[in-house]
Amino acid sequence: MAKGSSFLLVASMPLILVATVLFVGIAGMMSPAKASPASCTLAGFAADKVPNGWGAEIEKSAKANALPASVLAAQLEAESGWNPQAMSGAGAQGLAQFIPATWATYGNGGNVFDPVAAIDAQGRYMKNLQDTLAPVAKASGTEPIQLALAGYNAGPGAVQSAHGIPAISETQTYVQKIMKNAAERFSGPCQPTAPIIGGVDTSGKGDNYPWPNAPVGVANPVTNFYYRECVDFAWMRFMEQAGTPAPPFKYDKNTIGAGDAGTWKAAWERQGWGTGTTPQVGAIAWYAPGASGGSVTYGHVGVVKAINPDGTIIEEGYNIDLGSGANHAYYTRTIQAGFPSAYLYIPGKG
After folding, report:
1. What is d(CA 151, CA 286) in angstroms, rounded to the nearest whole number?
2. Catalytic (active site) residue 79
3. Cis peptide before 51 (omega within 30 of 0)
4. Cα–Cα distance measured from residue 5 to residue 115, given in angstroms and rounded to the nearest whole number
5. What is the DSSP string of 195-208?
6. Residue 192 burial by CB count (10 A; 0-12/13-18/19+): exposed, middle or buried?
7. Per residue of the chain (350 residues), what is the pLDDT tens digit?
8. What's the pTM value of the predicted model, to 2 decimals?
9. From 79, 229, 315, 316, active-site residue
């Protein structure tokens, strides 16, 4: 159920339990899910699995709000079972199960029972939740999309109070079921031609990142990223190659618009810097949000450390927790050259 931001107290929970329980069974406690090492997780969107031709509307809403369409589809199924006329005892209505107060904010004056309007509002509200809960995601290491789902079900205040997914069995089951169905039923076809080869080396060999023990979730005043995030390490490598390993840097992250990893390719293109699918030593290995190899929400950036004689590459970076133990730590991994979504070339070198 789409809980509005006015529901900021856990005390409001008795009203929460009614709407989605019609479609999501109550189960035991869960831990926040981590990215899967499978090469197909949330890769693309299986729009043909969505009934009534609504797949195109979900894709449109997902793209407009930088969200994975597969998660939005699985969420709608959990909320209403694809019934645009659904109503709950708690007053939630329509395909996306908005309560009237929240619909008044995100419905743009539309009809809550109009599935197109509901899908549009769902995307905008999920984006708002994700942005609102971003500090919790940074501090807890939980995927922002999972926190947005928890906020949709329990209210953002409950997520903020819990500093993560609340210890509410319905909410935890809600998040777990949606993420599972997003990966298994609403993601696009697997592309197993570019897997990670072997495991991920987390020994730390070759790591010269200056802040390997800095606290996670704290801004780095030198780079203006967060300590031990993939972007912090990749920016350091980028500045080394640009000839300014220490401030003042040759480039300013805010000027070029390099924020979360998912934004880097667009930032490169705005500057007229080269991007492509051919690896180069030193290039940024960029993974789009939702692509295999990185975060569902943020994507990922690593650095091409070496190119092997067989054409595979050794990627280095920080914070690629795929069950490898490399959460907020240095890693190297050998991958097929086609595994990253793109390569971002260092200006003047590619």
Report:
1. 29
2. yes
3. no
4. 22
5. -EEEEEE-S-TT--
6. exposed
7. 776 543 333 333 333 333 333 333 323 233 333 333 333 444 578 899 999 999 999 999 988 888 889 999 999 999 999 999 999 999 999 999 999 999 999 999 999 999 999 999 999 999 999 889 988 887 877 888 999 999 999 999 999 999 999 999 999 999 999 988 988 889 865 444 445 666 788 888 999 999 999 998 899 999 999 999 999 999 999 999 999 999 999 999 988 888 889 899 999 999 999 999 999 999 999 988 877 777 777 889 999 999 999 889 999 999 985 544 457 899 999 988 888 889 999 998 75
8. 0.54
9. 79
Which residue carries 């500057």 as its tokens?
A: 271
Kindly state the tokens that stand for 108. 């743009």
Determine the residue type at 25. Answer: G
- 114: burial class by Cβ within 10 Å (0-12, 13-18, 19+)? middle
- Residue 302 near residue 332, CB atoms below 8 Å: no
The tokens describing 181, both together, are: 């169905």
